[in-house]
Amino acid sequence: MITRFLTDVRVKFNPFSPRSKSARLFLSLMPPSARSNGMKIESQMLPRHSKEPAFLGLKFKDGKEMKLDLDKMRITEVMEEVDRHSRQLARKEELLGN
């Protein structure tokens, strides 16, 4: 997963719910140096009996924001969405010569 174009990651999930697996896996895919490289990562744990759906909010360097409902998405679908926009940003960066 291409994470170098992410600036802000917000995750809200119930760690005890099986439907929150995508949220837990997404957080595990973040590189250890993400925070030191300037990425803001916020995670909110919901109570055990919470019925609120898992949520992922992303912000990219170009200002685009993504809001994903993780209860309905598998981790592969989440990675595809993030990588799709990251590849577009990488292409733009390459064409500009930065």
TrEMBL record:
It holds the Pfam family MRP_L53. Keywords: Mitochondrion, Ribonucleoprotein, Ribosomal protein. InterPro entries: Ribosomal_mL53, Ribosomal_mL53_fung. It is found in: Mitochondrion. Gene3D superfamilies: Glutaredoxin. Belongs to the mitochondrion-specific ribosomal protein mL53 family. This is Large ribosomal subunit protein mL53. It comes from Zopfia rhizophila CBS 207.26. The lineage of its organism: Eukaryota, Fungi, Dikarya, Ascomycota, Pezizomycotina.
